[in-house]
């Protein structure tokens, strides 16, 4: 069962996993919640979490700083923060870039379409070209 909504919820995830694995929704719900709680606990302890090909979760520290209110231009003190950063892994990047809709990205043989190019050089006797003249109306 795939929902047509733009947002996927934990309830929908549990439903899909239960259908795919044949497990009951209550068992899957407990496993998913335990998984999420474990990730949160590890991040709270400052641990880096890496799922190969999926991505990396880690905590970054942002120092306190002075910012400006864009409406009033008044200075505003922003306290130091610990933020969760996520860096997508290779499989996620490939699927998102290809808009695969859940299908695996096509694999490509490494080096199969690589062409050897010569560096672009001009003869040493030829001076560099001057930039084209600009019109009087041009701001550049």
Detailed description of the structure:
By secondary structure, the chain is of the alpha+beta class. Among the domains are: 1-47, no CATH class; 59-100, no CATH class. The chain has helices spanning 10-21, 25-44, 90-98, and strands at residues 49-51, 55-62, 65-68, 75-78, 81-88. It has a three-stranded antiparallel sheet with strand order 1-2-5. A two-stranded antiparallel ribbon has the order 3-4. It is extended.
Summarize this structure briefly:
The chain has 140 residues and is an alpha+beta fold. The protein is built from three helices and five strands, in the order H-H-E-E-E-E-E-H.
Calculate the terminal CA-CA distance, rounded to whole Å: 57 Å
Radius of gyration: 26 Å
Low-confidence stretches: 105-112
Helical element count? 3
Strand content: 15-25%
The largest β sheet comes out as: 3 strands, antiparallel
Structural class: alpha+beta
Largest beta sheet: strand ordering: 1-2-5
**Helix percent band:** 25-40%
What would the principal axes of the Cα set say about the shape? extended
Mean pLDDT: 81
Oligomer: single chain
User: What's the total number of strands?
Assistant: 5
| Sequence of secondary-structure elements | HHEEEEEH
